[in-house]
C-alpha cells in the first residue's frame, strides 16, 4: 500500500513539474525588472512582447535622463561633439548608428552587419528618410556637427547593454588585467577611474550617452537572438532574412557560477565602490538578476 502511495505521489509531482515547465517554456512573461523572464530566453516570443519590452526600457531610460538632469543635447562645437560621440559607429548602407561597448554583444552585431554588407540583394524595404550620402567612414565623430545631427535624427540607433559586473569579468577574462588577480584588477579600476578609463569597463551612460543619443533599440545581453531579429524586421528587412545564432543566452548561464566566485573575491568596501561607480548604469537600465545590484547596491540605496 505504501509503495502504491509513493508511486502516486511521484506521478503527481512529475505531472505538476511538467505543467510548470510547459507554462514557463511557452508563455512570454514581463517582469518588473523590464526583461523577458530568464526561463524563456531561448524560447520564441512574440514581437508584441519584444516591442513592449523595448517601450519599458526606453521609458526607464527617459525617466533616468529627466531625473538626473543629464546633458541631453549634442555640444555645438566640433571638438566637443566628436569627443562625446567617439564611441558611436555608423553603418551607412543600412542606416544604423550603434555604440561600440565591448563585451555587450556588439561584436556579434558587427559581424551580422558585415555579412549583410557582402550580400548585394540585401536592401531595406522602407525608404530612407534622409538621402544625403555620408561616405564609408564608420566613426560618427569624424563627421561635422551638421551631419552628426542629421544622422542622429534619421538613422536607427542601437545600444547593447550588459550587467556591469559581467562586463568587468569579460574584461578580466580577455587579458586586460596585466598579471593581476581579479581583486587587484578591480582595485586598479577603482583607484584610477578616469585616469585608467577604458571602454571595456567605462559605464555605458558615460560611453554611449543615452540621454543625448535617443536610442531606438536597447538590446540586452542574453536576449540578442530574439531582439536583433525583431530589430531587423522592424527596420525593414524581409522576413526571410537569416539571422545567425547568437549564443549569448548560453554564455549568460555559464557566467552564473563564475560571477559568484569572483564576487566572493571582493571585499564589501570594493563592492560598494563598484555600486557607486556604476550607479548611473543601474539607474538607467535596471539589469535583471544582477549579483552586484541584488546583494550590495540595493542595501546601499535603501
Give the helix/strand layout:
Layout lengths: L1 H25 L20 H21 L10 H7 L3 E4 L4 E4 L6 H12 L27 H10 L1 E6 L2 H10 L8 H11 L11 H5 L8 E4 L3 H11 L13 H17 L3 H10 L1 H7 L5 H11 L1
Parallel strand pairs: 2-3, 3-4
Antiparallel strand pairs: 1-2
Structural summary, described in words:
With 302 residues, the protein is mainly alpha-helical. The protein has 13 helices and 4 strands. It has a single domain, classed as Rossmann fold (3-Layer(aba) Sandwich). It has helices at residues 2-26, 47-67, 78-84, 106-117, 145-154, 164-173, 182-192, 204-208, 224-234, 248-264, 268-277, 279-285, 291-301, and strands at 88-91, 96-99, 156-161, 217-220. A 4-stranded mixed sheet has the order 1-2-3-4. Helix 2 (47-67) packs across helix 12 (279-285) and helix 11 packs across helix 13 (291-301). It is globular, with a radius of gyration of 22 Å. Mean pLDDT is 79; it is low at 1-35, 37-43 and 120-137.
For the record, the CATH architecture stands as 3-Layer(aba) Sandwich
Number of distinct beta strands? 4
Radius of gyration: 22 Å
Overall 3D geometry?
Answer: globular
CATH topology: Rossmann fold
Number of domains: 1
Mean pLDDT over all positions: 79
Helix-strand makeup class:
mainly alpha
Order of helices and strands: HHHEEHHEHHHEHHHHH
Largest sheet: 4 strands, mixed
Proportion in β-strands: 5-15%
Helix content: 40-55%
| Distinct helical segment count | 13
